[in-house]
Design goal:
Elements lengths: L18 H34 L5 H16 L8 H11 L3
């Protein structure tokens, strides 16, 4: 494999023998990692808000966290110039 690729997200799926298999395996691995991280983060945020404001019903807190996360995450998939700027900002600043 003597291909030279530039740095960045274009080198993600370069593999030698089974590129389709590795692409699917990599996607599933990232999906499982993301779901696990998301559930831990959301559970922590929900617990903190529930402890701070015990009079607010838990389902309202969960709904607010889910809607807020959806709106914040939608910047990555919108068809305007924003996603690439946000992606570059997050990668450049090691968030």
């Amino acid at each position: 494999m003597n291909m030279i690729k530039p740095d960045g997200d274009s080198t993600t799926f370069v593999s030698s023998d089974l590129p389709q298999f590795f692409a699917v395996a990599f996607f599933l691995m990232l999906f499982a990692l993301g779901i696990g991280s998301l559930s831990a983060d959301a559970g922590t945020i929900i617990a903190v808000i529930s402890d701070k404001y015990p009079s607010v019903k838990r389902w309202k807190i969960v709904t607010g966290i889910c809607v807020g996360g959806f709106l914040l995450g939608s910047i990555y998939v919108t068809p305007v110039r924003g996603p690439q700027i946000h992606y570059t900002f997050v990668n450049a600043n090691n968030f």
